[in-house]
Amino acid sequence: MTLAELENAKAESLKEVAAANDAAAVEALRVKYVGRNGSIPALIKAMKDVPKDERPAFGKAVQAWRAEVEAALAAKGAGSSGEKSVDADLTLPGRWWGLGAKHPLSRVIEETARIFGRLGFTVADGPELENRFNNFTALNTPPHHPSMDRSDTFWFGEDCLLRTQTSPVQIRTMMANKPPIRVICPGRTYRRDTTDATHSANFHQIEGLYVDTKPVSLADLKSVLAYFAKEMMGDGVTVRFRPHFFPFTEPSVEVDFTCHVCKGKGCNVCKQSGWIEVAGAGMVDPRVFGHVGYDAEKVSGYAFGFGVERIAMIKYGIPDIRWLYENDVRFLSQLA
Predict the structure, then answer these.
(1) Does residue 252 contact residue 284 with C-beta atoms inside 8 Å?
(2) What's the pLDDT score for residue 80?
(3) Cα–Cα distance between 320 and 198 in angstroms, integer?
(4) Which pLDDT band holds residue 244 (cuts at 50, 70, 90)?
(5) CA angle (289, 291, 295) in 5-degree steps
(6) Running DSSP on this structure, what letter comes out for residue 196?
(7) What are phi and psi of 30, to 5 degrees?
(8) Based on the domain organization, do 108 and 229 belong to the same domain?
(9) Domain termination residue (choose one: 78, 96, 124)
(10) Which domain does 16 fall in, by range?
(11) For the whole model, what pTM was predicted?
């Protein structure tokens, strides 16, 4: 197209816009001339075929045509009164877009990190795909232990598995650092559990570890967990230790909190016992220190771990663990 032909086409297009007498006709002309596949965009794409010495003048003319057509279309769109038509009913009330809320599991993890952060603990992280040494051997788990069975653990070959606990993060932390170490390890864990109201194959844990060259005692562990219980569950919550067994701690204990609902008097939530089982804990077994290269004669420490879902269900009164994974907005909005 020559410059003369372009000027004629511009004049014709402006004449058509001026003659358009309804919104449909104006829209059709907009599509015809300045739409994605319209005449003017097509000319712009064809600029590469215009002789190099003519391109500046030709390009300037095309842009001028586009500007004039868009101005003419805008004027037509405004109507004879100069006011744009509005298809919405302006008398209707505005829509309320509700604010989102953090998931209860995220709330528990973040609150736990804040509580232990005040005690000097930092957050450590590690991979969800682990090896046998970090997940079992270094934690003093015997080869015949049932947790190693394929019916209990997700294995990928002989030395690769989905971690069954966040304790491997403690092993990695100790192997990479010298004492003192004071960390909590939140994260996803995986076990071959049948999903029901209180179990899931994919769940979250938070484990803690404190190792130092200075003496560390079971009394230190109890004071830390008592502080956590009070900060997480509220005043009046106390801690009870019961003897137990874990391969990686000795002595080992189960940790109970007084029921935050009945304050220890007994209710349906705590099955009339006044206590709720929350965590496992104990003093780190000396053989674990040997696996990570520590001298068990020079260091001591404690470890603890609890399920995030367990804390969330207790704290928010959630009776079924599956509710935490169904993404039902009606349920989640109650916790906003």
Answers:
(1) no
(2) 38
(3) 6
(4) very high
(5) 40
(6) S
(7) -60, -45
(8) yes
(9) 78
(10) 3-78
(11) 0.67
